[in-house]
Amino acid sequence: MKRGQSSTESLMVYGIGLLMIVAVIASLSFFGVINPESLIPGSCLFDSELECMDATIEGGNKSVHLALVNNKGRAIDILNVSLAFAIPDSYRCNSTRMMLDADGTLSTYTLTDSIAVAGQFTMNNRIPESYGFRIQIECADANWVVDEKVQINVEVTYRNSYSGLMHTAQGTINARVGQ
């Protein structure tokens, strides 16, 4: 037997073995025995001017919690927060209240037709430079399934307190619905 033939045969044997292993893993994943999504951790990504420190979605009290830091370099005034579920797109958040913790006390904003449309809140709260703050949005009619992976697109509209110009920071939350 020639050396080239034996190396070709060994490559074929190992190649077929590797292909069989990949086929078994793919079929186990397809039939739900192995769930690769459970291995991926949650994430919270925002534009650089608002850094996301943490985010949770609670199915029990039907609320979304965000912990952000003002990295703008100046104080900002939070004007509006809106949520849109990307995955699954059947989820909704018709918000009734939003709470903002900017100084250790929770300011509560109740939804009224004059200040909000489809889960958007209008408010006016100053956040100092390099200061962390929390946003909690309650969704009265949420139909969320506990332990389901969701993706939420978030928009925070704010005004630079120095220049008076309005900006919008966009972010994405990938997380599982908790208890």
Secondary-structure topology with pairs:
Elements: H1 3-30, E1 43-46, E2 50-58, E3 63-70, E4 76-87, E5 95-101, E6 106-110, E7 121-127, E8 132-139, E9 149-160, E10 166-178
Parallel strand pairs: 2-10
Antiparallel strand pairs: 1-10, 2-3, 3-8, 4-7, 4-9, 5-6, 5-8, 9-10
Backbone CA Rg = 24 Å
Percentage of residues in DSSP E strands: over 45%
Terminal Cα separation, in Å? 65 Å
How would you spell out the order of helices and strands?
HEEEEEEEEEE
Shape: elongated
Largest sheet, described in full? 10 strands, mixed
Main structural class: alpha+beta
Mean pLDDT: 78
Number of H- or I-type helical stretches: 1
- How many individual β-strands? 10
Would you identify the CATH H-level superfamily of the largest domain? Diphtheria toxin, receptor-binding domain
Written account of the structure:
This protein has one helix spanning 3-30; strands at residues 43-46, 50-58, 63-70, 76-87, 95-101, 106-110, 121-127, 132-139, 149-160, 166-178. With 179 residues, it is an alpha+beta fold. It folds into 2 domains: 3-34; 41-178, Immunoglobulin-like (Sandwich), CATH 2.60.40.700. Strands 1, 2, 3, 4, 5, 6, 7, 8, 9 and 10 form a 10-stranded mixed beta sheet that branches. The model is unreliable at 111-122 (pLDDT under 50).
List keywords for this structure.
Immunoglobulin-like, 179 residues, single chain, alpha+beta, 16% helix
Short description:
This protein has one helix at 3-30, and strands at 43-46, 50-58, 63-70, 76-87, 95-101, 106-110, 121-127, 132-139, 149-160, 166-178. By secondary structure, the protein is of the alpha+beta class.
